[in-house]
Amino acid sequence: ARHIWTVICGQVMTDSVSGALSLIQVIEELGAEVLVPPGAPVPQDPTVPLSLSIVSLWERSSPGVPEDKESYQVRIIDPNGKEIARNEQVFSMIGPHVRSRNIMNVQGLPVNASGRYEFRVFEHRAAKWIQVAVVPVQLKVSARSADPAPARPS
């Protein structure tokens, strides 16, 4: 298989009639804020559960040759160079299918540092994982105290 592109977004929609794919809220930069209850200490490095979709397009290496059980991984690397998540998917391009669109949904990824996160895409080829793309996302994580609820008039 050959990697064509990967996009990080907030939501993916597929038209049921045409099969057209819509990528909503494409993410290149993201701010995430944690609201801390009134009176609680505001953490320096708050943890934010981040939810997003990783969408990739692949095509056959040779148009006339079917490819079955191809696999790829997306490894998420934090600003300190630490791998914080790894997801793998298997797909096939057989019969008339010469391309494959793949969607990985990531729910509740705990991030706690601002900076550049990398989504590294790897293809499994010849018994090795080969990096085929890097998609950077700049993330700003912050925390603030929630405003106390206004007092009700008596």
Name some characteristics of this structure.
five-stranded mixed beta sheet, 0% helix, 67% strand, four-stranded antiparallel beta sheet, mainly beta, elongated, single chain
What's a quick, concise take on this entry?
The protein is mainly β and 154 residues long.
H-E string: EEEEEEEEE
Helix content class: under 10%
Mean pLDDT: 90
Give a short account of the largest sheet. Answer: 5 strands, mixed
Give the radius of gyration. Answer: 20 Å
Read across the widest sheet, the strand sequence of neighbours is 3-9-8-5-6
Taken as a percent bin, the fraction of beta residues is over 45%
Overall geometric form: elongated
Question: How many helix segments?
Answer: 0
| Strand segment tally | 9
In terms of structural class, how would the helical and strand content be classed?
Answer: mainly beta
User: Termini separation (Å)?
Assistant: 69 Å
List the uncertain runs.
none
Structure write-up:
The protein is mostly beta strands. It has no helices and nine strands. The protein has strands spanning 2-14, 21-26, 29-36, 48-59, 67-77, 83-93, 99-111, 115-125, 128-145. The strands form two sheets. It has a five-stranded mixed sheet, with no helix packed on it. The radius of gyration is 20 Å and the shape is elongated. The mean pLDDT is 90.
